[in-house]
Design brief:
This protein is α+β, with helices and mostly antiparallel strands. The protein is built from two helices and five strands; from the N terminus they run ααβββββ.
Length: 82
């Protein structure tokens, strides 16, 4: 399912398509804002959005030598049990 399909499904159940677009965009914006602040977003029964931090180690394909890659924060979704 893509964003447009999600908006259509929300519009079928709750409101007009225009209001559904605003609701979905506001939801995604709130999740992004929380992640930028370093907070996890937990939606009970659905899953959790968190920032994964790590210092990945790569490999030079020509020489096979291990190289360090700069650490970065990446958003990760962990699905809930159900």
């Amino acid at each position: 399912m893509n964003k447009a399909q999600l908006i259509d499904e929300v519009a079928k159940v709750t409101c007009t398509k225009k209001e559904a677009v605003l609701a979905v965009d506001a939801t995604f914006a709130a999740i992004q804002k929380a992640l930028k602040k370093g907070n996890a977003v937990t939606l009970v029964g659905f899953g959790t959005f968190v920032l994964a931090r790590g210092k990945p180690q790569g490999q030079n394909p020509q020489t096979g030598e291990a190289i360090k890659i700069a650490a970065k924060k990446v958003p990760v979704f962990k699905a809930g049990r159900s």
